[in-house]
């Protein structure tokens, strides 16, 4: 494993002048840890298995060296709808974010790479037209990519670089079958880069079968820039407490997570009655509407955005001050991804979970699994009862709502086991 130095600068990584100049324009002062450890190996053509916390600069870690390969080796897409670099992601928002980054980093290139975004929720015909003549980069969600392959709009037999970003999320959303179909169409001789925030058993097995003698990089999964809090409240008072916190702290940008689309809609309506305008973000929204909502939230035109877990991955909002769990996520890993929307790139952020009695047990699981040891707080005027009301449902009687994803069948949860990036299991 390569070491990390605080004195390393981008100009010591062997990057081309066009990229260095653009990074300077973007005020990238020095590479993050994941960029320091990944870029040299990717430039050398090695496979990579990388684990890093959200907001650590993973996109630049693979986008910059792949653009360098495009720039210096004159790699170009061939006629016949071939593609050089294929980047697979779990969500549409992440696909668009990576596309935007690739375009931004290559602004100063004399020969601009052809970058095509492939995702559902928009016209497939427009994507088929863009793919005519092939592409240098395709950033895709698996389902729509398979649709285009079936239509002979793109061929994968000459892919030189494969990137799987948020691999754990793709497998968790039930994309395993689609990924296996795609991988069978790829040439055996290629460079493969796999990025994942967590490493459950299925990721370890998947990586073992996919990668060839990979360089392994794992960063500490810390959230030291995020002040985490948990506030107890009786369930009927949750909305009132949320409204109180937003007004009392005068937050100008708040991302609120709920577990179900219906909860998002109801919560927005209840906040409106309390004088707080909020927008909702979930899969019932058309893709164009989702894109506009994110853009407006990033610019501050939307103050409160209420979202399901489709916003927990791949949404990069600079200096987002607050994330609130109105409802807890289903898994401890999703908790980390949710709160990781704030405190990014070294900025400070605050993550608050509002929990009622029926969520105490599940939060204790999240707290223990993530080694948080958070102290439960109460807010004056919104104190939780010492004991749960008689009509309070227990977690055993009423399981958590399933997280919103692709609508695919979810696998049964496996017994929890700690697995490090090397595949070793610990109790």
Task: Give an overview of the whole structure.
34% of the residues lie in helices and 16% in strands. The protein is an alpha/beta fold and 427 residues long. It folds into two domains: 10-218, Rossmann fold (3-Layer(aba) Sandwich), CATH 3.40.50; 226-377, P-loop containing nucleotide triphosphate hydrolases (Rossmann fold, 3-Layer(aba) Sandwich), CATH 3.40.50.300. It has a seven-stranded parallel β-sheet with strand order 3-4-2-5-6-1-7, with helices on both faces. It has a seven-stranded parallel β-sheet with strand order 10-11-9-12-13-8-14, sandwiched between helices. The longest helix has 15 residues, at 58-72. Residues 393-401 and 406-427 have low confidence and may be disordered.
Question: Which characteristics define this entry?
Answer:
single chain, 427 residues, alpha/beta, Rossmann fold, seven-stranded parallel sheet, disordered C terminus
Short description:
This protein has 427 residues and is of the alpha/beta class. It has helices at 17-25, 33-43, 58-72, 92-105, 124-130, 142-150, 167-172, 176-184, 201-210, 238-249, 261-273, 287-299, 332-339, 360-369, and strands at residues 48-51, 83-88, 115-118, 135-140, 161-164, 191-196, 215-218, 226-232, 254-257, 278-281, 304-307, 322-325, 349-355, 376-377, 418-419, 425-426.
């Amino acid at each position: 494993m390569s070491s990390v130095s605080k004195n390393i600068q981008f100009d010591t990584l062997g990057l081309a002048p066009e990229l260095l100049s653009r990074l300077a324009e973007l005020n990238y002062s020095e590479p993050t840890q994941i960029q320091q450890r990944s870029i040299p190996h990717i430039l050398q053509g090695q496979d990579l298995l990388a684990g890093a916390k959200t907001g650590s600069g993973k996109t630049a870690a693979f986008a910059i060296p792949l653009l360098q390969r495009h720039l210096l080796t004159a790699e170009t897409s061939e006629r016949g709808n071939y593609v050089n670099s294929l980047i697979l992601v779990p969500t549409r928002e992440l696909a668009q974010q990576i596309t935007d980054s690739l375009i931004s980093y290559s602004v100063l290139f004399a020969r601009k790479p052809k970058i095509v975004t492939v995702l559902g929720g928009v016209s497939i015909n427009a994507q088929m037209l863009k793919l005519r003549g092939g592409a240098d980069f395709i950033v895709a969600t698996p389902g729509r990519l398979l649709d285009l392959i079936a239509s002979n709009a793109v061929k994968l037999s000459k892919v030189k670089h494969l990137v799987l970003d948020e691999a754990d999320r793709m497998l968790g959303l039930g994309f395993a079958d689609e990924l296996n179909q795609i991988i069978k169409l790829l040439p055996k001789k290629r460079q493969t880069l796999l990025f994942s925030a967590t490493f459950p058993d299925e990721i370890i097995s998947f990586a073992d079968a996919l990668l060839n003698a990979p360089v392994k990089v794992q960063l500490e999964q810390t959230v030291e820039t995020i002040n985490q809090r948990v506030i107890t409240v009786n369930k009927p008072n949750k909305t009132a407490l949320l409204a109180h916190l937003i007004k009392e702290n005068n937050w100008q940008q708040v991302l609120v997570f709920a577990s179900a689309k219906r909860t998002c809609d109801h919560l927005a309506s209840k906040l409106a009655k309390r004088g707080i305008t909020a927008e909702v973000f979930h899969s019932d929204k058309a893709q164009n509407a989702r894109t506009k909502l994110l853009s407006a939230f990033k610019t501050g035109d939307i103050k409160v955005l209420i979202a399901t877990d489709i916003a927990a991955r791949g949404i990069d909002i600079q200096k987002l001050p607050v994330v609130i769990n109105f409802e807890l996520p289903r898994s401890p890993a999703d908790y980390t991804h949710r709160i990781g929307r704030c405190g990014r790139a070294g900025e400070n952020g605050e993550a608050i979970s509002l929990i009622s009695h029926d969520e105490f047990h599940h939060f204790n699981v999240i707290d223990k699994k993530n080694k948080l040891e958070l102290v439960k707080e109460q807010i004056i005027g919104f104190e939780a009862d010492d004991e749960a009301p008689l009509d309070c449902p227990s977690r055993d009687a009423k399981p958590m709502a399933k997280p919103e994803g692709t609508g695919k069948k979810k696998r049964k949860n496996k017994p929890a086991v700690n697995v490090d990036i090397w595949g070793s299991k610990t109790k």
